[in-house]
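Q: Predict the assembly, please.
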Amino acid sequence: MIGFKAWIARSIGRLSRATGRGGGTTLPGRVLLKLDPNAIDKLGARLSEGTTLISATNGKTTTASMLATILEGAGRRPVHNRAGSNMTWGVATALLEQHGTEGLFEVDEAWLPEVADRLEPRTILLGNLFRDQLDRYGETEALADAWADLATRSADRSDFVLNADDPLIADIGNSSGPGTSYFGIADESQALSELQHAFDAKLCRVCGHELTYDRAFVGHLGHYHCESCGMRRPEPDVSANRITLRGMSGVTARIDSPEGSSKLELPLPGLYNLYNALGAISTARQMGVPVEASVRSLASMKAVFGRVERIRIKETTLSILLIKNPAGANEVIRTLSLEPAPVDLWIALNDRIADGRDVSWIWDADFEMLADRIGKVTCTGTRASEMALRLKYAGWPADRVEVIGNLEEALDRALGGAKEALFALPTYTALLDLRKLLADRGDTEKYWEG
Amino acid sequence: MKLRLLSLYPDQMNIYADRGNMLFLQHRCEWRGIDFEVTRCGPGDRFDPGAFDLLYMGGGQDRDQKAVARDLLETKQESMRKAKETGAAILAVCGGYQLLGHSYELEGERIEGLGLVDLKTVREPGPRLIGPVSIEVDLENEKRVLAGFENHGGRTRLGASAPLGRVLHGHGNNGEDGFEGVREDNLIGTYLHGPLLPKNAWLADHLISTGLEHHHGERPELEPLEDSLEQAAHEAALAAARAG
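A: Predicted assembly structure:
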């Protein structure tokens, strides 16, 4: 029966793309799940080599793409929701439209328990939990509880790969099975000089006492312990040492593991991408790929959809960096602060459902760090005025910040005023709008192609 | 002139970027040549109620809120009562607002509040009340509008204390009686969370005036600021509430 339902759903997807309506990354899955709510279980059972799931607040798409690159280097081509559609219907669409013997899916934080119960994955990689779209996801603590429950009931079917530096994630190791492994940053020289404003793990998950941080690297990711119950950050199996940040051009680090040391030259910027790489390398190791081979594959990694993508438009290089929550935005800000000043920016703040209706979070991101480095700034999107207001109170010179509601007008204005480089910082739905606009103008391919 | 702000539990009660309110008050004072002084007051700390003109408490996650509730009763209840009685401005948002009342009941547990105002909060079955919100308030004998965002599981019901305003769009205290927040003396409690002051510059200035009056004994005439972006952000928040 699943065969016929799958055929209908697949045909609808083809039709939708052929008529140029788009939505090809979710529609077939939506149709299929309507026809058969258990379709993911049935199609997933065909993946004889097993499935890997990846979830996190930040870095899901990039990490999954890194792991896909590593697996490809090893001659493996998993079924993968590479367009970043990560709710059940996105997973169902990938299962419908691709063939393979193993699965690799990034999954939305809230949907992870359901998808994991259906697919019974061999490996689950959990990267981080930050405050994000509280109107959609609720509290980080509540998500951490739901994930710990998942770990308890999957202890004998799934191996967990956990970020040792995030106390909300590392704690899940107290519930998961013996196959659990950890990754983290060791290089103490990369610590932030002070803790950031948006800090999401203050209390010990075991006893509720306040955590002590020796250092933090990104948001609340760092080296911590509890002075009350003695809980400590687990010792990572895979760790990064001797790190050099090279602005937009990337990061280098020495990756240490029981296999020895390897040099990673990652062409993506920031410690946050180093964390993504550590997660991908650790998971690949769990899947039988040596660290040395992973590191080699990652050196040729390209940016994925809206995650540090670069596009040439006439004389200007447009770099697109998605912003959606304080922790992610802070890392983008930190990366931009390493670029030569003045930095020209196009910032698009939308408050549609997929962005989170609540734009409060922009007041938690440390835009102050760029105040004396900016060139021309164009704010657009449904809440452009609040974005510009945030920048005013971050000390950005008012005469360099302009509000233009219409996205395309704003882009042209920003491109016109920019020197060689323009950085675009869109929220999620603004990113979709921007990609469509660039595709319509012939600057890029439509994202569901290729 | 000087405004002395007491920031209550800045490390625990900050979940919706409450820091935006501090930044907003700070700059608006500094641009007018008013000294602005912030004192952080966390778990275990006691404070002198006569030494502060404006008290702020934001929202937190359930676990933080419970710990803060205990600490408030142990170390700050008397000072909070004095501050309110002597006319200090108090702004409490979301989780902080709930703790001003008698109690917050959730999942068979009862969190004791400060009892500064006559209200109770209960987490009842049903969805969280989430979304953009606008309310009409009557402050300084003038009808004005506040726009913001709410996200709360608790339903608050007022006893003898007066509401801050009437819901125009959104849920308000409990999604039923059409009231939002609480107001008594110079205390304001509201579910309009996180950075509500940047979206409502007039309320920020009202709090600054009230605080300065508390410190210097006379209500000052605040110098007007160039507020076109503030106005545009207010209107965008109002439009979001209207659209639902």
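The mean pLDDT of chain A is 91. Chain A has three domains: 1-37, 47-298, 307-440.
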